[in-house]
């Protein structure tokens, strides 16, 4: 299987797995929204948002930098991966301690403290799962990671169904705690599977090499800052909305944003597959960049049109009539979805050429804008303001990244690449 076929296979397998995960998520969300209602589902969204934010702090950009360094020298793969699994587990433990302190101190967690404490354990297992995903990505075997994601979603659904069947999902607070336990258990299963399979691909030397750890952590500093800032402005609206409007609007907006997050994933899968090639062959970026832009455009246009038209049906299937206000929020967010597709291209390209420091500056600028806009408009206009602000934030990031790449590398999102790209896909079943 050549590189083009491997990229295509990686992308297709991730997309196929994501379709299965989306189907399982539809079933799971249908249960959760109907059992928990807007307020209970809002609590669920708030807790998971907080956990994923602290997970981004624990990651600190080490995953993508580790992959970049590992693909350069096969000989040091065992030591690199072993060292970074240990380092990342340590940072996850630190993040867990900080999160637990926040749960006990902040008033936002007062009504959901037990559920939040249970969910906090997910940080450790998410770190391990992502660590083993680094190996799959470096070996261009992302279909394995995709299969593990399916397994995790299936296990989560089965546990929720089990508790529902036993009549345990009755009172909202207790139901939220059981849902969080299910999330922890499913993430643990994914981490265990990742460990067992990754050891068949690469010999992992679990010896902490301080030189390797220091080098990768130093390289990851701007990338880590970027991911944390990105996670903050990507989830800031949930925290602001929860503070000013409470859990029910968070549930309405959270459902729309969950759909938006899933819609963006095809772009992430495609760029995950291309990233090792970008890092190895920077001289070919001028050829790859416009073609990937063309692929992303071909993917997002029909997807956005379909979701816009089918939004009422999608929301009704997922959550029922009580969540119909999510339709408008989802339709507004679709423009942000489209821009986010292209932000994956600019973001991954900047990392591939070692310009994560510039990405960090852009993210900080976007965070300041996002924070100010949310504080000004969300108290007045609730989740619709949050959706519109998301569009402008994504647009700001794309504009800055595109201008930098055009000036620095001569990379342009050219429409002229469309005919050649379509021809290769249709006639040769290749991307390049």
Structure, explained:
The protein has helices at residues 3-59, 62-70, 77-105, 113-120, 122-138, 142-165, 172-201, 210-245, 247-280, 285-319, 326-352, 356-409, 417-428. By secondary structure, it is mostly helical. It has one domain. α9 (247-280) runs parallel beside α11. The longest helix is centred in the N-terminal third of the chain and has 57 residues, at 3-59. The two termini are 14 Å apart. The mean pLDDT is 82.
SSE inventory with pairings:
Blueprint: H1 3-59, H2 62-70, H3 77-105, H4 113-120, H5 122-138, H6 142-165, H7 172-201, H8 210-245, H9 247-280, H10 285-319, H11 326-352, H12 356-409, H13 417-428
Helix pairs in contact: 1-3, 1-5, 1-6, 1-7, 1-8, 1-9, 2-3, 2-5, 2-8, 3-4, 3-5, 3-8, 4-7, 5-6, 5-7, 6-7, 8-9, 8-12, 9-10, 9-11, 9-12, 10-11, 10-13, 11-12
How would you sum up this structure in a few lines?
Helix content is 86%, strand content 0%. It has one domain (3-428).
Low-confidence stretches: none
Question: Which percent range fits the helix content?
Answer: over 70%
Structural class: mainly alpha
**Distance between the ends:** 14 Å
Please trace the helix and strand order, writing H or E for each element. HHHHHHHHHHHHH
**Computed CA radius of gyration, to the nearest angstrom:** 21 Å
- By DSSP, the count of extended strands is 0
- Our estimate of the beta-strand percent is under 5%
Mean pLDDT: 82
């Amino acid at each position: 299987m050549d590189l083009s076929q491997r990229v295509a296979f990686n992308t297709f397998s991730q997309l196929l797995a994501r379709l299965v995960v989306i189907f399982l998520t539809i079933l799971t969300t249908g249960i959760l929204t109907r059992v928990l209602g807007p307020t209970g589902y809002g609590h669920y969204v708030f807790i998971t948002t907080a956990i994923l934010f602290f997970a981004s702090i624990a990651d600190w950009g080490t995953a993508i930098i580790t992959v970049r360094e590992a693909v350069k020298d096969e000989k040091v793969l065992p030591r690199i991966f072993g060292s970074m699994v240990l380092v990342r587990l340590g940072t996850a433990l630190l993040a867990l301690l900080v999160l637990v302190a926040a749960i006990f101190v902040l008033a936002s967690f007062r009504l959901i403290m037990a559920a939040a404490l249970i969910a906090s354990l997910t940080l450790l297992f998410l770190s391990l799962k992502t660590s083993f995903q680094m190996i799959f990505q470096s070996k261009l075997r992302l279909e394995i990671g995709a299969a593990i994601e399916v397994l995790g979603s299936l296990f989560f659904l089965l546990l929720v169904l089990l508790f529902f069947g036993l009549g345990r999902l009755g009172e909202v607070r207790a139901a939220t705690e059981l849902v969080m336990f299910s999330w922890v258990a499913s993430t643990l299963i994914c981490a265990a599977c990742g460990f067992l399979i990754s050891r068949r691909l690469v010999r992992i030397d679990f010896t902490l090499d301080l030189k390797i750890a220091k080098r990768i952590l130093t390289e990851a500093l701007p990338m880590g800052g970027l991911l944390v800032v990105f996670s903050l402005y990507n989830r800031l609206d949930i925290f602001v909305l929860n503070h000013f409007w409470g859990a029910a609007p968070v549930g309405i907006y959270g459902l729309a944003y969950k759909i938006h997050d899933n819609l963006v994933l095809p772009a992430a899968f495609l760029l995950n597959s291309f990233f090792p090639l970008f890092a190895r062959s920077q001289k070919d970026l001028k050829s790859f960049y416009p073609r990937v832009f063309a692929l992303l455009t071909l993917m997002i246009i029909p997807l956005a049109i379909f979701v816009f038209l089918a939004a009422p049906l999608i929301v009704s299937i997922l959550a029922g009539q009580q969540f119909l206000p999510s339709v408008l929020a989802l339709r507004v967010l679709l423009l942000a979805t489209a821009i986010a597709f292209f932000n994956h291209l600019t973001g991954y390209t900047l990392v591939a050429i070692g310009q994560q420091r510039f990405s960090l500056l852009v993210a900080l600028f976007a965070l300041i804008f996002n924070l100010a806009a949310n504080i000004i408009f969300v108290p007045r206009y609730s989740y619709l303001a949050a959706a519109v602000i998301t569009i402008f934030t994504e647009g700001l990031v794309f504009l800055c990244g595109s201008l930098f790449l055009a000036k620095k590398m001569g990379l342009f999102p050219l429409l002229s690449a469309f005919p050649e790209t379509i021809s290769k896909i249709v006639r040769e079943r290749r991307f390049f």
